[in-house]
Amino acid sequence: MIALGIPFVAVAVAVGVPWAALLYDILLIVAAWITLRLSPNLDGLRVVRQFDPVLSVRVPNKVTVKLHNDGPEEIHAEFRDEPPPRFDSSRRQFPITLRSGSETELTYSITPYERGDDFFRGSYMRVKCPLGLVERQVKLSTEQPVRVYPNVLALREFDLLQQKGRLNQIGIRRARMRGLGSEFESLREYTVGDDFRKVDWKATARRGKVIVRQYEQERNQPVIICIDVGRRMLSELKGVTKLDYVLDSLLMLAQAAVVANDFVGLLVYSDRVKRYIPPRKGRNQLGMVIEAIHVLVADPVESNPIAAFSYLLSRWKRRSLLVCFTDVDTPDEAKSLATAFGPMVHRHLALFARISDPRLKEAAEAQIDSLDELYTRASALMFVQERRESASVLSAAGLHSLEAEPQDLAAALVSFYFQAKEKALI
C-alpha cells in the first residue's frame, strides 16, 4: 500500500495540493496501527524446547521446539530460536502457521565447540498482521540453561554396537571376555592361540583331541583414569586442545569398564592433585566421572606426577589398570615420568596414553621441493624419533605406552582394556 501512494502523491503535487500527501501518510499510519491492533494475540501460545540434559561438544545435538496454539486465532509468523552465540546452528528461523488448537514441531541441530555452561537467549516471533502492512515482533521468554560435556553421544553408539557385536565398526578389537579367571566355566576344543596352561589333559585323553578349560572372566577389576591437566595438555590440534580429545576418549574407556561391571576411578592432577574419585562400579559412578571432567581446563603449569602417584598409592592398594593421559616429547621427560611411577610399577598395570599430531606425520613423509621443506621434514623426523625413544624408555621401565591420533585414541584404549582382561593382566 505504501507503493500505491507514490503515484497519488505525485499527482497531488502536480495539481498543487501537496497537503494530500501528508493526509495519505496519516491515513497509512492509522491503518497500520489498526492492523497491528488486529494482530493475533499470543497469550495462548505455548513453546517448549527439548534437548538432551547434556550436550556433546563438537558434534551436532538435536533440538526440538514444540509450539501449541491455545488461542482462538490463527497465527502466521516467522519463528526464530536463539541458542548460545558460540554454537553453530543448522537452522534458526522457521515459517509457521498455527490454527487454533493446533501444534507444530520444529527440529534443528546445534554444535557447541567448548565445554561448560551456557543458556538459550530465548525465542522471537515475527507475527504477520492483516493487510500485510506491518509485522509485530515479540520476544518469548524461553531462556533455558544448557550444559556442554565431552562427547557423551559416542557412548550411545558404543552401547548399540556392543549389543550387536559390531564394535569393530569403530575400530575396537573385542577380545573374548574369558581369560585365566578363577571360576571354571566349561570345556571346549583347543583353538590356535589358546594358552597351553588351560589344557585339560584328562579330557584330552578321553576325547582323543586337545581340550581346554574355559574360565569365567573375573569382574570387579579396578580401572583408574589419571589425567594430567598441566601445560602439556594446552597444545592444540586443529583448534582443539589435547585435553578435549583426552576427555572424549576416556569416556569410551569408562563406559566399556562400566558395561563389564568393573570399578572405575578418576585422578586429575597438574602441579597438585585437583580431583580424586575412588573406584566404584555402576552407572552412577560413570555419571560422577562425567560430571567431574566436563569443566576441566588445562593449567599453564608444570605437572607434578610424583605427588600425584604418591597420593594415589596412599589411597588405593588393590592391583588396577592405571590409564594415564599425559604427553612426553623427549626421553628425559619419559625417564622422569617412569621415576615418578616407579613405586607402583609392580603393583599395577600402567598404560600411558599420548595423542599424536597428524601434521607431524604428514611433515615427516612430505616430498622435498625446497630448502625450507627439507628443514621442516628434518625437524619432523627428529621429533618423531624422540617420541619413539620416549615410548621405549617407558617400555623399559615396565610401563605400557600407547600413541594414537585423536580419532583413533578411544578405540585403541578400549582395545587395550579388552586385551588386558582377556589375558588376565589386571
Describe the structure.
The protein is of the alpha/beta class and 426 residues long. The chain folds into three domains: 45-148, Immunoglobulins (Immunoglobulin-like, Sandwich); 153-159 and 165-175 and 219-422, Rossmann fold, CATH 3.40.50; 178-216, no CATH class. The protein contains eleven helices and 21 strands. The chain has helices spanning 5-14, 19-37, 153-164, 201-207, 242-259, 283-293, 305-315, 331-341, 358-365, 371-396, 406-422, and strands at 45-50, 55-56, 61-69, 75-82, 88-89, 93-98, 103-111, 116-120, 122-128, 135-140, 144-149, 183-189, 211-216, 222-228, 236-237, 240-241, 263-269, 273-280, 321-325, 349-355, 400-404. Residues 177-181 have low confidence and may be disordered.
Task: Summarize this structure briefly.
The protein has 426 residues and is of the alpha/beta class.
Fold blueprint:
Blueprint: H1 5-14, H2 19-37, E1 45-50, E2 55-56, E3 61-69, E4 75-82, E5 88-89, E6 93-98, E7 103-111, E8 116-120, E9 122-128, E10 135-140, E11 144-149, H3 153-164, E12 183-189, H4 201-207, E13 211-216, E14 222-228, E15 236-237, E16 240-241, H5 242-259, E17 263-269, E18 273-280, H6 283-293, H7 305-315, E19 321-325, H8 331-341, E20 349-355, H9 358-365, H10 371-396, E21 400-404, H11 406-422
Parallel strand pairs: 2-11, 14-17, 14-19, 19-20, 20-21
Antiparallel strand pairs: 1-3, 3-7, 4-6, 4-9, 5-7, 8-11, 9-10, 12-13, 15-16, 17-18
Helix pairs in contact: 1-2, 3-5, 5-6, 5-11, 7-8, 8-10, 9-10
